[in-house]
Amino acid sequence: xxxKKRSPLAFFATGLPLAATIIIVLxxxxxxxxxxxxxxxxxxxxxxxxxxxNNNTEGGIFPAIFGTLLLVIIMTLVAVPIGTITAIYLxxxxxxxxxxxxxxxxAVNTLAGVPSIVFGLFGAGFFIQTVGAxxxxxxxxxxxxxxEVALSEPSAPFATLKQATIADVLKFLESDDAVYxxxxxxxxxxxxxxxxxxxxxxxxxxxxxxxxxxxWGKPGLIWAALTLALLTMPVVIVSVEEAxxxxxxxxxxxxxxxxxxxxxxxxxxxxxxxxxxxxxxxxLAVSRGAGEVAPILFTGVLNSAxxxxxxxxDQFMHLGYHxxxxxxxxxxxxxxxxxxxxTTVVLLALTLALNITAIMLRSRLRKKQFx
Length: 371
Known about the structure:
This protein has 371 residues and is an all-alpha fold.
């Protein structure tokens, strides 16, 4: 039997994709090996557990590792549930040709194509300057109402005199409850003329209203995580929607025929049979979110930090941004090069570890599903 000659079209159909795949894999291997050769020898316990020193050219990157992990966890907790619920609605409840479903899909497709830096600007304008500032304004106004009542009490400096020194006002608030009045004390300390100046209660309240203490209306971890959640949500929605569509409609109809409600069918039949595809979407979202830097530039990241974030409103360090700082803003770029490569290795290893964890979980659930 003589073998059939392969046509040029068949070669292009199989050979070109294979060649492109080999080139891409080789490029990835070369990049990873290059970083590993220089970066791995500079890794050590000190580098992984200490804080940066001397303009980030010495010390370690522990705050950046901690901040990156915390950011990815919060982002995942926000993006995955909301994206999954949206995909369930679009697949199971919404009429496919309704204007509402088409509008949602158009919005999702549009978000998927928006540059990441635009998400950063949106996060700064909406989350920080609108939502955060609104929370601070409401919280500050409520506290000022309590402060005005407190400063009018018989034991307050203004009880006997129409005016009092700023020092007396500060002393009264500190003796009343220094922790509760901490923000008001910080604002009063900036009063023109200092502690020796005298003022009426109306002047003090006017100064306080003009100098609100920012807590939510400033860059912080929560706003950066929400911005990244918006960035990665289209990936979650599309992947979960595709996973739900792989469940045969016959299974849904069989469940409904046995007396199960639509919600019970979704929870007990559809979701268990599509969980592996849903986890794939989560893996893609985590992978993209862990390495994004542009969206967090304006929403919470720091060049360097001597403390770990203790609240969701605190700023934080990030491995990707730390790498950018080392490469572009270091006073001695050559001296910082070993740290650049070592930081890159840690970022790649962290992303790989998150992906492997999700893949192992997906594999375990898949085995349980078919056993």
